[in-house]
Amino acid sequence: MSAALRCSFPLTVAAPIRRGAFLLGFALAGFFDGILLHQILQWHHLLSGLEGGRFAAIGTQILADGAFHAVMYAIALAGLWLLLRHRDPLARTRATALAGYAVIGFAAWQILDVVVVHWVLGLHRVRMDAATPWIWDLGWLIVFGVATGLWGWRLLARKGPSGPAAGSPSRGAAAGGTLGALVLAAAVLNLAPVNALDDRGEGGAGQVTLVTLPGQGARSAYAFAQRYGAAIVDTSNDGTVWLMNVPVGARRMPRYTDGAWVVAAGGWGGCAAWLAAR
């Protein structure tokens, strides 16, 4: 590391601020994975790599996802608590330094996830239905782990503006508030299931995947089909995952009703294909 880079590195950032920003970035990475990979793309659940027994049940998989997200909520709250408790040093912290520690926290989770969760423990892969899952793992590690971590390091090494404005309360408070709001927004989004119909009531044309609650498979599926005029196309072996065709003009699907865990657009793809085969 050059002398210029060492001089610009924000060693004066208070330890609680460093830890708080790191924890918020770490939690944001968990929410990012949960929202994108578990809910939107549906490429895996937390325990998708475990075979047989109770792990074949969608209820167990979603319960594990919920436990994972609960841990991320706790980590995010710990990070917010550290920043709020040390508001004075936060106000004197450069925005780029705060962002740098958060980005490094984000990258740290991605590296930990791929190396430990994917490769050491084998709990899941980035894409469970891929022919060569290690390529997806490696690509994810490089882009969201290594490259993102280097970006965070560069943010830490960046020199802030000179003069009184560099440490003004407005700058530090704004940076901390923005980071906290971003994590809270991700946490709120994580609570919402993927909805197959849009707000205009016109998104119902096409296939919809319905994951039912334990013990309510056929009853929930037929009630759902009758309510929305859907035609049942296929179901998984255990009767918990149902594929349906929903007609154009169907009303917006209510959240967590009709006895369903998840209502998602699309057919037997990604996670749904894995569930249907079990």
Structure description:
- This protein is of the alpha+beta class and 278 residues long.
- The protein folds into two domains: 3-191, no CATH class; 206-276.
- Helices cover 56% and strands 9% of the residues.
- It has nine helices and four strands.
- It has a four-stranded antiparallel sheet with strand order 2-3-1-4, sandwiched between helices.
- β2 (231-235) and β3 (241-246) form a beta hairpin.
- α2 runs antiparallel to α3, α2 (15-40) packs across α5 (95-120) and α3 (58-85) packs antiparallel against α7 (169-191).
- The longest helix has 28 residues, at 58-85.
- It is elongated.
- Mean pLDDT is 76; it is low at 1-9, 162-170 and 193-205.
The order of strands across the largest sheet is 2-3-1-4
Q: Name the shape in a single word.
A: elongated
Radius of gyration, in angstroms, nearest whole number: 22 Å
Number of domains: 2
Structural class: alpha+beta
- Percent helix, as a range, is 55-70%
Total count of helical runs of at least 4 residues = 9
Describe the main β-sheet briefly. Answer: 4 strands, antiparallel
Order of helices and strands: HHHHHHHEHEEEH
**Average pLDDT over all residues:** 76
Number of E-state strands: 4
Instruction: State the separation between the terminal residues, measured CA to CA.
Output: 52 Å
Can you tell me the residue ranges where pLDDT is under 50 for at least 5 consecutive residues? Answer: 1-9, 162-170, 193-205
Could you tell me the strand content as a percent range? 5-15%
